[in-house]
Amino acid sequence: MTTTARTTTVGLLARIEARPERVKEVHELLTTALALAEEETGTTVWFALRLGPTTFGVFDAFGSDDDRRAHLEGKIAAALMAQAPRLLTEAPDIRPVDVLAAKLPAA
Question: Distance between CA 67 and CA 43 in Å, rounded?
Fold first, then answer.
């Protein structure tokens, strides 16, 4: 197990339901958010997912609760929440999770 995998201990799992007429915009928002995630030094991994026709998800992981909190207070969350009323059917369902095990590329 790499050092990064051993130090990745917490994460977030978010489920996002797009308005049917806004699916393309949610898709674009999430794919362009990758650049912002790459800027976050405390974010170990970040995935934007498509779970269904209008359902998206994000999974990200961090080395500490402070890193997770910084992410929740960062640019990606701000961009999503600013556009949520227009793009989404409801507020994102964001759940904190504990990472039990991880396989990540060597840093």
Answer: 7
The residue type found at 64 is S
Q: Give the Cβ contact number of residue 40 at 10 Å.
A: 17
Displacement of CA 103 from its chain's centroid (Å): 18
Q: What is the pLDDT along the chain (107 residues), one digit of tens a residue?
A: 555 656 889 999 999 999 999 999 999 999 999 999 999 999 999 999 999 999 999 999 999 999 999 999 999 999 999 999 999 999 999 999 999 998 887 76
Bridge-based pairing of strands 10-17 and 93-98 is: antiparallel
CB 29 within 8 A of CB 83: yes
